[in-house]
Design a protein that fits this description.
single chain, 290 residues, alpha/beta, three-stranded mixed beta sheet
């Protein structure tokens, strides 16, 4: 098993390496510190049967203005180069981490995969472009891609810029949580363990190249509800810093998982309360080990 990362400075490299620590001591794991945008990718793919393409520049708010070039490079260019490498170095499956951001403000909820994508941010545009590249290489070259559209992933080891992480840290002495807008925005939260299960299933499922499926947790709620839930589970009120609504943030997300059930035999198993409780406990252990 080979992990690949170039440790971009989107957030603290120390946090990324801390998340890697359990893997570094695992038998058969090796870490390749490689920039997929410029490196020769054939050695990276040597002896690899399945590619889980998680590499990306994440986040909506920084994808505007001067930040857009980073998103094109690390999302679109990297995906195209990886697909080219896989085309000449065949693998059994390439599972691409797409995003619910491709839908934007959808016309109906829960949103199915055949809905017309209308990204509401430059980040969503780059994820949709990457997903289309996966479909093009599947259609023209038979590259065995599967694109999974993640809906708001949360849980232990979550990125520090994401809402659940920041909410929990705010209850433990961290900065107040920046609440953009009035908290009425709805998200379909998906526990990280369910995301992992979907990826592993997609790696071996009998599906046609270029398949696309939502991976949604079925735990839709408002941000205000999440604030209250975190406060309840952490045992104290979340300190808030109210800010104006941000460009690119959609009002609601929610995904139909009928296709994931049919093609992958997958469905989520961890409800929001259980998942957030697990993440609160991870934050406590993390702070206790420092």
């Amino acid at each position: 098993m080979r992990g690949v990362d170039c440790f971009t400075p989107y957030y603290d490299e120390a946090d990324k390496r801390a998340n890697l620590d359990p893997l570094l001591s695992a038998p058969g794991f090796e870490l390749a510190e490689v920039d997929l945008a410029v490196a020769d990718l054939h050695p990276v793919l040597d002896s690899i049967d399945v590619v889980f393409h998680q590499a990306a520049q994440p986040g909506v708010r920084l994808s505007w203005s001067d930040g857009f070039g980073h998103y094109v490079r690390n999302n679109v260019v990297v995906t195209q180069r990886l697909l080219e490498a896989v085309r000449s170095h065949p693998v059994n499956r390439m599972v691409f981490a797409s995003s619910s951001s491709v839908y934007g403000n959808a016309a109906a909820y829960p949103t199915a995969e055949d809905a017309l994508p209308r990204p509401h941010s430059p980040y969503g545009v780059t994820k949709l472009a990457s997903e289309h590249l996966c479909g093009l290489y599947a259609a023209n070259w038979g590259v065995p891609t599967v694109s999974l559209r993640y809906f708001t992933v949360y849980g232990p080891r979550q990125r520090p810029d994401m809402a659940t992480h920041r909410l929990i840290e705010a209850t433990m002495g961290g900065p107040p949580f920046p609440l953009y807008g009035d908290g009425s925005q709805v998200r379909d939260f998906t526990y990280v363990g369910d995301i992992v299960a979907a990826n592993l299933t997609a790696a071996t499922a009998d599906v046609a190249p270029g398949a696309v499926a939502n991976v949604a947790g079925g735990s839709s709620c408002t941000l205000a509800h999440l604030v209250g839930l975190v406060g309840e589970l952490a045992g104290c009120e979340v300190p808030l810093e109210r800010r104006p609504a941000q460009a690119g943030d959609v009002g609601r997300t929610g995904g139909s998982i009928d296709r994931a059930r049919e093609l992958l035999g997958w469905e989520p198993h961890v409800d929001l309360r259980t998942g957030v409780a697990r993440q609160v406990e991870w934050h406590r252990r993390r702070r206790g080990s420092r």
